[in-house]
Amino acid sequence: MPLVTTKEMFERSMKEHYAIGAFNVNNMEIIQGIIDAAKEENSPVILQASSSAIKYARINYLMKMVEAACEEAPNIPIALHLDHGPDFETCKMCIDAGFTSVMIDGSKYDFEENVAITKKVVDYAHAHGVVVEAELGKLAGIEDDVNVSSDDAMYTDPVQAKEFVERTGCDSLAIAIGTSHGAYKFKGEAKLRFDILAKIKELIPNTPIVLHGASTVIPELVEMCNKYGADIPGAKGVPDEMLHKASVNGVSKINVDTDLRLALTAQIRKVFSEDPGAFDPRKYLTPAREQVKNTVQHKIRNVFSSNNKA
Ligand code: G3H
Ligand code: 13P
Ligand code: ZN
Residues with beta carbon inside 6 Å of ligand 1? Predict the structure, then answer.
């Protein structure tokens, strides 16, 4: 089937209390690994690309690879989403190229500026049949080009969230409840503010909620990377149980990038370490792609519960 928007996916996820995985892509192997997993699990899926990923892959290649994915998985609803759109122009470029969903990340602005830029994107996107994710609140860590120190981490204010959604008409809202991007999310215990999530769902029950910075930073993959020469000490993410709890409590979209990076890297490092003579890319990219698939499959089936929801 052709690319779909996230509208129906999210409506059903809210009704049946599960989440859709949104996986960051920037090359063919990652796209194939994700789609192979979604097909085997019969799950809807969101492929998302950041502006730097689009620069890397080049938009024409990206569109063609995603088109191929849709042809290979005719029964799987697939949405193509711009992750952390930095400005109106980038959102417009993606909408014009055929993305079905865009995020305008105005979280770096003050409330009024965030409302204004989000509304501008919503007007253009809706006129072209595209849905819009916006963000309110700040995640600790690195967000694309924006660097927010953990001291500045600012949880989403539920009352502001209601006003923001009403004034912008955005289709989904990314919130800050304690997650952060990258491999170092928590200094001590992992902690998410489920009380804030509950309050937001109470005030805007029909708005799909998005969780960024939601990789588990899978310990086995970190260990494997380190075993084969990486230096990623003390990495920590959001445990599976917390993500599952978020999925059944109103989070409709869960963003995963870091875990896929770790999956790919762990297998590539293993091949290079065990076979220093290897130089055929297929030799290391085949197990890397398989590890992406297994990682996505685990999340779909055991954490987000979107299996058999295609
Ligand atoms: O949230 C950010 C994503 O992990 C994308 O990162 O800009 O390095 O592609 P990137
Ligand atoms: P992670 O770094 O936790 O994978 O988060 C990815 C993300 O939020 C993409 O927008
Ligand atoms: Zn993000």
Answer: 24, 50, 52-53, 83-84, 143-144, 181, 257
Token duo for residue 174: 């990314």
User: In one letter, which amino acid is 292?
Assistant: V
What's the angle, vertex CA 174, arms to CA 172 and CA 179, rounded to 5?
A: 155
* Catalytic residue status for 83: yes
Q: Which atom of ligand 1 is closest in space to residue 257's alpha carbon?
A: 4
User: What's the mean pLDDT in 192-208?
Assistant: 97
Where does the pLDDT of residue 152 fall: very low under 50, low under 70, confident under 90, or very high at 90 and above? Answer: very low
Mean pLDDT of the chain, nearest integer: 95
Distance separating alpha carbons of residues 103 and 50, to the nearest angstrom: 9
Residue to mutate (ligand 2; options 101, 215, 261, 295; most atoms within 8 A of CB)? 215
Count of Cβ atoms closer than 10 Å to residue 131 Cβ: 22
Long-range CB contacts for residues 176-180, cutoff 8 Å, separation at least 24: 176/107, 176/135, 176/136, 176/137, 176/138, 176/139, 177/211, 178/153, 179/139, 179/211, 179/212, 179/213, 179/214, 179/238, 180/139, 180/140, 180/141, 180/150, 180/153, 180/213
Q: Of 36, 83, 157, 259, which is the active-site residue?
A: 83
The Cα 159–Cα 165 span in angstroms is: 10
Structure tokens at 240: 């599976």
State the chain's maximal CA–CA distance in angstroms.
Answer: 59
Atom of ligand 1 nearest to the CA of 213: 1
Quote the ligand 2 centre to 21 CA distance (angstroms).
11
